[in-house]
Automatic annotation (TrEMBL):
InterPro entries associated with the record: AAA+_ATPase, ABC_branched_ATPase_LivF/BraG, ABC_transporter-like_ATP-bd, ABC_transporter-like_CS, BCAA_Transport_ATP-bd_LivF, P-loop_NTPase
Domain ABC transporter, residue spans: 6-238
PROSITE patterns associated with the record: ABC_TRANSPORTER_1 (PS00211), ABC_TRANSPORTER_2 (PS50893)
Gene3D superfamilies in the cross-refs: P-loop containing nucleotide triphosphate hydrolases
PANTHER family, alphabetized: HIGH-AFFINITY BRANCHED-CHAIN AMINO ACID TRANSPORT ATP-BINDING PROTEIN LIVF
Keywords, ordered alphabetically: Amino-acid transport, ATP-binding, Nucleotide-binding, Transport
Name assigned to this protein: ABC transporter ATP-binding protein
């Protein structure tokens, strides 16, 4: 593995008295796509939010690009060229597509706005067709494209993607995964992907981790995990969407 971009060691997180994360260890190297798969409620989204400082880890450490960010506030983490596209496509529904993308670009003071806008429209041509439409009137797939594009407008080095295919038609989900692969190949973008669609996620990822009840139970190369009997039985039976 090349130099680590993100190192998570022994991380625990709680909701009240309930342990949501139980000593999680994960590494993401620069230029990798790493995926975390697991059933609904396994703790995947909690880990994603903990990396971004809300909730903060109770124990353990999160080191990003050589810097300990475990206790750092969320707004400071956002300045470190980490972008997040959270579960549920939290776009601004009353704003147009263009205004949503402007919100993403605010982090960089609009330094490369026109160039980045062109990149997003090349990546997601549907957004160009919908540029003056309000976010809330877009289809689910279009909203997901907008959520990812908004995150990318901040020119991140590291992208956190939480359940990008959730609730999407298989064809649209495939387009989303293809766009993520393209960004990684052409721009070297490092991606940490939390996903229930294990088949597409493991096919796309260089490496993967399996989470069960807040603990990592398996890790390995994406293709290798796809072949593991226990992974196939738990996550892939009838699941090649």
């Amino acid at each position: 593995m090349t130099e680590p971009m993100l190192t998570i060691r022994g991380v625990t997180a709680y909701y009240g008295a309930i342990a949501a994360l139980k000593g999680v260890d994960i590494d993401v190297a620069k230029g990798e796509i790493v995926t975390l798969i697991g059933a609904n409620g396994a703790g995947k989204s909690t880990l994603m939010m903990t990396i971004f400082g809300s909730p903060q880890a109770r124990d353990g450490s999160i080191v990003y690009d050589g810097r300990d960010i475990t206790r750092m506030p969320t707004h400071e983490i956002a300045r470190l060229r980490i972008a997040q596209s959270p579960e549920g496509r939290r776009i601004f529904p009353r704003m147009t597509v263009l205004e949503n993308l402007q919100m993403g670009a605010a982090v960089t003071q609009f330094a490369h706005f026109d160039e980045d806008l062109r990149r997003m429209f090349d990546l997601f041509p549907r957004l160009k067709e919908r540029v003056s439409q309000r976010g809330g009137t877009l289809s689910g797939g279009e909203q997901q494209m907008l959520a990812i594009a908004r995150a990318l407008m901040s020119r991140p080095q590291f992208l956190l993607l939480d359940e990008p295919s959730l609730g999407l038609a298989p064809l649209i989900a495939k387009q989303i995964f293809a766009a993520i692969g393209e960004l990684n190949r052409t721009e070297g973008l490092t991606v940490f992907l939390v996903e229930q669609n294990a088949y597409h996620a493991l096919k796309l990822a260089h490496r993967g981790y399996v989470m069960v009840n807040g603990s990592i139970t398996l890790s390995g190369a994406g293709r290798e995990l796809l072949e593991r009997e226990e992974v196939r039985a738990a996550y892939l039976e009838g699941g090649r969407h």
